[in-house]
Amino acid sequence: MSCCAPTRRAETWVPAFERDWAKALEDARGSFSLTPLHEVVRSWQLRVAAAPAVDAFMDSGRDESGFVDLDDVPGRRR
Matching Pfam families, A to Z (predicted)? Predict the structure, then answer.
């Protein structure tokens, strides 16, 4: 397990978080609700918490090529 996973991901994750936050902020302004901001924070907390497990899986050499991309699943919520 890598101790520096978030640091390693910072180059891609920071812009992604900023994009998600900016959209949620606009949604919150339009709806007068903080829910979109809470959802962004919660989803990023989960992503950061899961990073060590993802790293461990990827480092184990397991082949995940047989899995289906969730974007290809019909009826997926967006």
Answer: DUF6247
